[in-house]
Structure formats: structure tokens, C-alpha cells
Design brief:
It is built from 4 helices and 3 strands. Helix content is 49%, strand content 11%.
Length: 156
């Protein structure tokens, strides 16, 4: 069996990893003490920070810090493309909204919702997506009627 990484090595890896996820990214690692927990270590990655956990997070567990790190890397690799797509689409909508409201979209205005690393990484794709979204017009609202899209009941 290979030697487990030390807590300091794990910390250094995390410190190098988080900026690649985003400036607001946070990772919390725990030593599990509850008897019902299967593994002694767990980690939760919040790509948008813990205060934005409603935007999603990843949770992994492992028997050693090495296994925990390996599992975290694999899980993030699976999630990274979806994360990029979600941020890009949200930013595209922000670009459209800000351009409509302010006449132009600036990085300063985007920083209200996105960190500078996200703007630098996803901004070009977000603009392309915004152009594609806006080009799908004209837009309308399809009225479905009734509650939650259910048809209206006709009263005889």
C-alpha cells in the first residue's frame, strides 16, 4: 500500500486546486467521527463559495487523504464541463440583461454576479452564447392557461 499524503501535502494540493475552480471556490475537509459514516474523511467542494451552496456543491468521502484527493479530482473532472456550461449560460443571460439595461455590458457590471476569473475564463463563450440566444427571437410567451400549465376547466 502506498504511503498516504500528509495533511500538509493535502492542504498544499487544495490551495493550488481551488483557484482553478474559481476565486470564490471553497473546500471543507472533515475527519468523520460519527460511527455511521462509512469513511473517515470527507470533503465538500463549493465552486461558488459556501454562501452560494444553492448553486451546487460536490461531496466526496475516502478512507485516506490520498483516496479523498483522488476521488475529489475525479468528481470535479466529471462536473467541470457542466459547471462551465452553467456559468456560461448564466453569464450570457447577464450580458443580455446588462446590455439592455445599461446600453453595454462591462466587466465591472458582471463582477456583481461573477468573479474576475470566471469573466476571464467564460466571458468570450458567454458572449457567443448571448448572441446565439438573442438570435433565436422574436420571443413570445406561450399561454398555457390553468394552474401550472393545466388546461382551464370549462364551466357548463
Amino acid at each position: 500500500m502506498a504511503k498516504d499524503i500528509s495533511p500538509q501535502e493535502y492542504r498544499e494540493r487544495v490551495q493550488a486546486f481551488l483557484p482553478t475552480v474559481g476565486l470564490k471556490a471553497e473546500l471543507y475537509t472533515s475527519v468523520e467521527t460519527q460511527a455511521w459514516k462509512k469513511e473517515p474523511y470527507s470533503a465538500s467542494l463549493y465552486p461558488h463559495g459556501i454562501t452560494n451552496s444553492h448553486r451546487g456543491y460536490l461531496h466526496v468521502e475516502g478512507p485516506t487523504l490520498t483516496d479523498l484527493w483522488t476521488t475529489l479530482q475525479a468528481k470535479w473532472a466529471e462536473h467541470r464541463d457542466r459547471h462551465r456550461l452553467e456559468v456560461t449560460r448564466k453569464m450570457a443571460l447577464a450580458v443580455i440583461r446588462l446590455t439592455t439595461e445599461l446600453g453595454e455590458c462591462t466587466d465591472a457590471a458582471l463582477r456583481d454576479e461573477f468573479d474576475p476569473a470566471e469573466i476571464n475564463s467564460y466571458g468570450e463563450d458567454a458572449c457567443a452564447e448571448a448572441n446565439a440566444m438573442a438570435g433565436r427571437g422574436p420571443f413570445s410567451i406561450a399561454m398555457k392557461g390553468g394552474a401550472n400549465g393545466a388546461p382551464d376547466l370549462e364551466v357548463a
